[in-house]
């Protein structure tokens, strides 16, 4: 009886504690990315979620995927627009603005959609899903979902069938997984970041993280001018490495 009670206690703890992202370990992929440059600001000692949760850390179907979080800086977004005009469909670009920033910059996000970028969900107020109720999480996700629908209508484009959610800071729990599943979302995290452990790196250092990313990497940038400058330096190296023409 005592053993049963102890087992129940540990299961209960797992259910109520948030899962902190572990970008280098994803059970849905059989091979962990082989790299010394893929970095994260997450604690690598936590237990990853089961593969059935559908959480994505890498995407081996593409050479690399550029993702840009937050979306609050208009100068940074304008630099990204310039890059998409220059390189077109040469690189996959997924945008994860939080809802309030998306609403403030709808015109720029509509331009990015028409240039081939996709807009996905990053909560409405950029809150970390730590000590949050299921109702709070659902409100954050669904409010942003409505904002995304609006910007796709503004761009006069069809929203992609696959919808991704990226929890700020990589924090999520079983409620997050359930809410995403019920509303047609998959959780996308990352395995490479330009600000490991929150470090304020130079443009050249950030660029090095980008162009050193292993094949299949999901690369996390933020809507900062420094990150866009780093992407501008790194893209020619990545495209040349994979033999992708700029178009």
Question: Can you characterise this structure?
Answer:
The structure is a single chain. This protein is an alpha/beta fold and 247 residues long. The chain has one domain (54-241): Glycoside hydrolase/deacetylase (TIM Barrel, Alpha-Beta Barrel), CATH 3.20.20.370. Helices cover 41% and strands 13% of the residues. The chain is built from eight helices and nine strands. It has helices spanning 2-16, 74-87, 99-104, 106-114, 134-155, 174-182, 203-211, 225-241, and strands spanning 19-20, 64-70, 92-97, 118-119, 163-165, 171-172, 185-187, 192-193, 217-222. The strands form three sheets. It has a five-stranded parallel sheet. The chain has a two-stranded antiparallel sheet with strand order 1-6. Strand 8 (192-193), helix 7 (203-211) and strand 9 form a beta-alpha-beta unit. Helix 2 (74-87) runs parallel beside helix 4, helix 4 packs across helix 5 (134-155) and helix 5 packs parallel to helix 6. The chain starts with a helix and ends in a 6-residue tail after the last helix. Mean pLDDT is 84; it is low at 2-17 and 19-52.
